From TrEMBL, chains A, B:
Keyword Amino-acid biosynthesis part of the UniProt annotation: no
Protein name per its UniProtKB record: TetR/AcrR family transcriptional regulator
One Pfam family from the record: TetR_N
Matches recorded under Gene3D superfamilies: Homeodomain-like (1.10.10.60), Tetracycline Repressor, domain 2 (1.10.357.10)
Lineage: superkingdom: Bacteria
Binding region for DNA: 62-81
HTH tetR-type domain sequence ranges: 39-99
Annotated keywords: DNA-binding, Transcription, Transcription regulation
Amino acid sequence: MLACMSTQSTGRGEPDRTLRLLWRDRLGDPVGSRGPKQRLNVDSVVDAAIELADDEGVEALSMRRIAERLGLKTMSVYTYVPGKAELIDLMVDRVAGEQALPELEGSLRERLAQIAHLAWNEYLRHPWLLSIDTSRPPLGPNVSDRWEWSLRAIDGLGLSDLDMDQVVTLITGYVSGPARAYLDAERLHRAVAETDEQWWERNAPILEEIMDSSRYPISGRVGTAAGEEYGSASDPERSFRFGLERVIDGIEVYVRERTTPSAAS
Amino acid sequence: MLACMSTQSTGRGEPDRTLRLLWRDRLGDPVGSRGPKQRLNVDSVVDAAIELADDEGVEALSMRRIAERLGLKTMSVYTYVPGKAELIDLMVDRVAGEQALPELEGSLRERLAQIAHLAWNEYLRHPWLLSIDTSRPPLGPNVSDRWEWSLRAIDGLGLSDLDMDQVVTLITGYVSGPARAYLDAERLHRAVAETDEQWWERNAPILEEIMDSSRYPISGRVGTAAGEEYGSASDPERSFRFGLERVIDGIEVYVRERTTPSAAS
DNA sequence: TACATTCTCCGTATGGTGTACGGTTAACGC
DNA sequence: GCGTTAACCGTACACCATACGGAGAATGTA
């Protein structure tokens, strides 16, 4: 039976192989040194997968293609990794460790901004992160380290444990929105050429019929502005920073409320 | 050649068939009444697909299974819809129209909360929305109506067009985070039974070795709190509301700064 | 009424996917 | 040297989206 496994729990035999793999540096591989040695190692497999996803997009990420890159045949990949879902977990944890976690210093605002910028950079480097199912992030060392580091940034402010969790989720979750926008704009820019012109030529009549400005007065106005801004190679990173300021403002308001119990709205 | 199309542009022949389909109610189908009538219609196909995704998850969503539900053979589905990517666009726009857009009234805070709650409800009803690639949302009537409605909620506040776009993106983007958390907790709850106990039994030794509280002091504390809160059937909707208040606070701060040009931090 | 046209439905086929299973062979422990 | 073990991989299976072309129904036209 070929079960349709969604993201987890492939490690049927041994107690969770995925966890063991994620923490393979800390826990040594329980390598029974009996048979022939592996030519490669888990890291090279993960690296190849990341490179492939970076180069050709997440839709090109297949076990066959990964094997190709490694000079292996498809099924050999499975001697390194239990399956594709687990491999993706490893990829996510791996890229989470690419950037060193800087010392947390400065104001709360600056520390929160550091958290956001780390995530921002990660999305720009590895756009496929936006296209994979990130429910249930893998509990690997890098993801865990970063979570701890993020929590440390807001520790000791008088927030409850649950609030702290919420705040970090909020700030990291925020980033994906503008990151998507940024990458979309970039992709658009690359794909433009004349294909774009043709697209508009074909669709202009339909769009005009549909988007009569009586139905969408504000969208029309805003869309035009956004199009000009993003289209003409402006700085979409500015948008990221804008939203970030809003989010941080909101958090600061909350922290202040908690700290100075004067006016409870 | 089987091109690997990502989400768009399948409408090769006619000027964008996807748009025509999305707006099929407004623009009448250009139905050449020559051959036999279609037994079904586009809406029933979209409905079947949504039901399937609701019932069995996004991984079960295949053209074959959809055809099955409709009493058709696989390839007949393609007479209604150009391909799977386009069908998903139609699904997204369809569920965007399920909830009537309420009158926008009350304070800015209340209006922003309305926007967020609309998205929140949608995610809870259709969890698969969190698992599909939502870069480039389809420009269908319901998505467009809702965008316009959202912009209207913050129009006339003195924000620039770009800022308005940002604010709506921010508030709707925020929701996906807690929605994911909510649905994860729910799924966990359902899958618990005794499988959970076994999972812990198997993994406890590994987890203990890894998660020694010296390395993750804060995560340990916070994780426990979150686990107790979510695990013991508390109200995760509260978390959603918490973050929402923060985001709205941040937006209010910004609006106030713009409106009363006194202290520019 | 007859014919040509057109469009639905679908059988078949192609090239992709993840991965189960079993075989071959290389490397080690005894 | 021999038995055990594990890496590598050939083959096969179930499933996927979808291109292509044929059968037959419904219509417009002659």
